Amino acid sequence: MSLNRRQFCQAAGGLGSLPLAVPGLARPAPPAPVPRPSVWWRDRQGAVELSLPDLTPVRRLAMAGPWRASPTGLWGIDAGRLTQWGLAGTEAQRVPAAPGDRPLSLVCVSATGEQVLTSDGLRLHLWSTTAQRWVAHYPCPAQGVVAAAHPVRRSFVLAPQGVEALWEIYLDPQAEDFYTGTVHDFQFGEGVPTRGHLGLRPMPMPTGLTALAVHPQHFHVLARTRAGEALIVNLDARRPLRPRRAVHAWGLSTWCTWQGQAAWAHLTPTGFEVVGLDDAATWVQCPRPARGLVGQADRELLWRADEDRLQAWPERAGRAPIARAGAQLVTARAVGDLVLVLWRQAEQAWLTCHSASGGPALAETPWTLPAGPPFLHGDEFQGLGVDPGL
User: Fold this and answer.
1) What is the pTM of this model?
2) Do the domain assignments include residue 199?
3) DSSP codes joined into one string, 202-240
4) Do the Cβ atoms of 253 and 259 come closer than 8 Å?
5) CATH no. for residue 115?
6) 3-class DSSP state of 277
7) Over the stretch 351-371, which tens digit does the pLDDT of each residue have?
8) Structural domain count, the chain
């Protein structure tokens, strides 16, 4: 049966609301749901992933020993083997044994989570999540190493214990080759360069280093000496800046921004001060004593901790103290536009979530205090600023 023009248009008009199937063209998939922001914290039973800002538990992992959260999941050691707990589900995946099949300890996880550095006491072993194999091995001092992941330089920075040096392992595939011999080796091409990618570059230091901290947006590294002083090390020049300064409480320091520049805030016997990372100079001094400091690398805001509250500094309109009636402040951390605070009162504990402007809690949940620090993200300066041993 044939249709005239009028009949065809009437029939086609009724199809306007129906999806047309075009041969060879797949129908577009619905947009994937946007994941809610979350954070990993530790309690007495293990690790808990909490959605933000409501602090609803997403999943729980009962794990022993140290572990680190990263963009590729949680990393830790289980029965001497490197183990990954992925972003989805709770099933653990053990990495194949490192050469020598000795028990491992976790040293550091890269900022992207794509490389994991471990130690068996004799050597350092580097696991790649993209290659799914052990890609490099390095000497390990008898006393071990302390390490930090450097997101800006895409590297690991290590302080070998018992050695007056700083090491850097380049993770960037485009890292340039380098020379470790004399200056003549470089100028006249007499030496053999070390491959940049995965190469280990030593830097002599005036003294041994016992702790490291890396600003997530700056290219220097902060180091603590055996004498308890703080050094700001320029990794490009491979030397520390002057002056050195005494550190009243290394673990109670924090990163911040001051007048648009990267800075480090730390306690002094009479208050606290803000130090620039470019010149190691003291920019601001505050004579008000504090138990600790909570800050963020990209924000010009510090929270000064007292026994029972957090007080914003500098004090400005719209910023209210963070407190919980009758409770003692245990530790705190800034996460994006939120501040998470752990409280204790007698045998009870709570975790509360607040906005960056302070004031009453947006959400709270009962908590059990772990034996050590509850944080699973970043190094000890990433928003950590109150003594977790209280």
Assistant:
1) 0.82
2) yes
3) EEE-SS-EEEEEE-TT-SEEEEEETTSEEEEEETTTTEE
4) no
5) 2.130.10.10
6) coil
7) 999 998 899 999 999 999 887
8) 1
